[in-house]
Amino acid sequence: MTTTLDQFATTKLASLDAASLRRRINPITRCPNAIALRDGQRLISFSCNDYLNLSQHPAVIAASVAATQRYGVGAGASRLVTGDHPLYRTLERRLADLKTTADAVVFGSGYLANIGIIPALVGAGDAVFIDELAHACIWAGAKLSGAAVLPFPHNDVAHLTHLLAAHPWRHAIIATDGVFSMDGDRAPIAALATIASTHGAWLMTDDAHGIGVLNAGRGTAHGTAVPLQMGTLSKAVGGYGGYLCASAAVCDLIRNRARSFIYTTGLPPGVVAAAIASLDLIATDPDLCARPLRHARHFTDALGLPAAQSPIVPLILGAAETALAAQASLAAAGFLVTAIRPPTVPDGTARLRFAFTAGHHEADIERLANHVRTSIMIAA
Ligand SMILES: *Cc1c(COP(=O)(O)O)cnc(C)c1O
């Protein structure tokens, strides 16, 4: 018997199919050095955010296993109840040290961090100014807050200045990605910090793609006074979790007010231990941290593209079908590169998104660039 609910789902899926926008998840076995196995095929992955390959690092795995054996698999409760195992304080200390802030708060994920932080700080009568290309979970947090949500054109500081003056607000957050996740470019953080302090607004940077890979691992905001530095432990740090680095008072307020911190179970001890081990590697190995960007530059140089500003390099192809065909052509040549389609990116800007890691080999990057030049750029 088909219910109205099933009919609804089937119709929605058919319209996604018709627009080449239906997503499918494929089982993938990830191995060290950016190798991935899919349907029995060995692929070199340029689609993982594991920029330092730390998810596969022996010391990180060993730390995770040891903590699991000592403390168990799960946290057992939210952190405010009994889930605050001792490793949490160490992790928050390491994050604050890396970011040179007074304190840090760890969340279950980056998404949970953004949907918790923004509503804890602003509400009705306030405003959130957001770069139009900022990550979906910043928008989600801003909408949840009940504050006015005011997008500004990508990296357009002049337009933002105009908006700040044109709208009345009591408190305001200016929110931006440090590195834009689908474009790989960086926000003008110093200029944004100046504007924020001139207007008395609070700058929040999402450094999901900056920590571990820019400024010797310290991230995009390093060297600039940014009061709200959010990020994830799920990309270059190799594990899972999110964080906010901020002043002691702000972090304490967040522990008291952020609903996605309070009403959810703490991270498993093994996940926290892995992040500590990864941050130790990041803090002590600047050459490791520099490698993903170096590899991305190698690729953009080889193709005559604008020099990469981060480990992420987009190749915008336009139509979703074109991006899917390019993805298939790369897979046939042994490269795993994911096509990114709307609604993740704006309509008409479907693209290939290349993510470079420390573990890639230069010869493979050159083979990749050759394939892109001869089979994709010419066809497009
Ligand atoms: C991936 C990402 C997030 C979400 O982080 P998770 O830990 O995966 O939930 C947030 N912001 C940006 C910019 C991201 O790229």
CATH class category of the largest domain: Alpha Beta
CATH level-four homologous superfamily name of the largest domain: Type I PLP-dependent aspartate aminotransferase-like (Major domain)
CATH fold call of the largest domain: Aspartate Aminotransferase, domain 2
Question: What is the overall silhouette?
Answer: globular
- Counting helices, strands and paired strands, the structural category is alpha/beta
Number of helices: 13
Helix content: 40-55%
Q: Write down the domain tally.
A: 2
β-strand amount: 15-25%
CATH architectural designation of the largest domain:
3-Layer(aba) Sandwich
How is the main sheet built? 7 strands, mixed
Mean pLDDT: 96
Radius of gyration: 21 Å
Query: Runs with pLDDT <50, length 5+?
Result: none
SSE arrangement, N to C: HEEEHHEHEHEHEHEEEHHHHEHEEEH
The ligands bound in this entry are:
pyridoxal-5'-phosphate
Distance between the termini: 46 Å
Count every beta strand, where a strand is a DSSP E run of 2 or more residues: 14
Spatial strand sequence of the major β-sheet: 4-10-9-8-7-5-6
